[in-house]
Amino acid sequence: MATQLPTTDIRVGADLIRRRKGGTPIVCLTAYTYPIARLLDPHVDLLLVGDSVAMVVHGHETTLGASLEMMIAHGQAVMRGSARACVVVDMPARSYEGSAVQALASARRIVGETGCQAVKLEGGVDMARQIAAIVAADIPVMGHIGLQPQSVKKDGGYKIKGRTDETVAALIADALAVEKAGAFSVVIEGTIETVAADITRRIAIPTIGIGASDYCDGQILVVDDMVGLTVDRVPKFVKQYADLRSVITHAAERYASEVRDRVFPGPAHVFSKTNGGDDA
């Protein structure tokens, strides 16, 4: 078992996120690695170690490729790179759905081996018992309703939620169930804007939107999507704030050209008796 990583006193916790309901919007991004966590930490309130790591880092077709061990390893890396943001780690598929006992065991393992401030799981009414059990053990839980990537096979794809009266009623019931079970906040994904706005008004915990509504109490994006690193299809709701694909491609082209032309390494990048000390 990995060594537990300590939290810090200055870190934003779940209670502080809960108190932001209706206030300044909560800024959230995903992070999966130490260097990205270090870069994002000064600018965000919450870092989510999302199970999207299975897709954007490990190349799986869906988030179902994430394992508990994978989430813990990336959670540890993000905790090492973060000093102040609230770090939340996703509970991957098959780690909590079976029972409240299973969910609590998985949540305890994630928090114990990463030192993160909270866990996140998908589901509403159907996962209320799991959320309540984890919260009762003093582990903060972030909910996730609307489009649930772990249910992509069951739903037959990534389907936008809230288009019919029946699905709207189900979404509201899910939000109320997550709140009643004790979650400190809830992600609303891929949901019709007016429905997400209505849910935000109805519940007393912060809503974090992704493909939802600007009326949500905060917003989250997958960092690779946001900085233009995603190599496959980018969801409609993503705004790209940079184009790192082009930057990296150009750098790789220059490097390849200089290696083949024997331009790199040059005199400044090799060691001799007269240039540089003992350190690389």
Output the structural class.
alpha/beta
Task: Give, in order, the helices and strands.
Answer: HEHEHHEHEHEHHEHEEHH
Note poorly predicted spans: 1-9
The number of strands is: 8
Can you name the CATH architecture? Alpha-Beta Barrel
Strand order of the largest sheet: 1-2-3-4-5-6-7-8
Question: At the fourth CATH level, what is the homologous superfamily?
Answer: Phosphoenolpyruvate-binding domains
What share of the residues does DSSP label as strand, in percent?
Answer: 5-15%
Residue share in helix:
25-40%
Number of helices: 11
CATH class value = Alpha Beta
Return Rg in Å.
Answer: 21 Å
List the helices and strands and how they pair.
Layout: H1 14-18, E1 26-30, H2 34-40, E2 46-49, H3 53-56, H4 68-81, E3 86-90, H5 100-114, E4 118-120, H6 128-136, E5 141-146, H7 152-155, H8 165-181, E6 185-189, H9 193-202, E7 207-210, E8 218-221, H10 223-226, H11 244-260
Parallel strand pairs: 1-2, 1-8, 2-3, 3-4, 4-5, 5-6, 6-7, 7-8
Keywords:
eight-stranded parallel β-barrel; TIM Barrel; about 280 residues; globular; about 15% strand; disordered N terminus; alpha/beta; 8 strands
